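haha ok so turns out i had the wrong file open the whole time. this is the CORRECT one, sorry everyone. sequence first:
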Amino acid sequence: MFPCTYNGIHLYFLEIIRRKGHSAPKPPIYGSSKKKRSNWINFSYLQVFLFILYLFFLLFSINNRKKTKK
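then structure:
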């Protein structure tokens, strides 16, 4: 569908997003609950940011393909 460079970058982004999802911390333990909760929020924000970046890249690559086809 895409040239191999695009495909490689897509796979790389998806892998980062997948890993961040898996490395989400376990539910907070008493005593250090506030610290762990903020840590989880940071992970999710990073995940969302990477996903938005990935979507922009996907749109850009599709638009590039349409321009080159014409």
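Residues 39-65 form one domain.
again sry for the mixup
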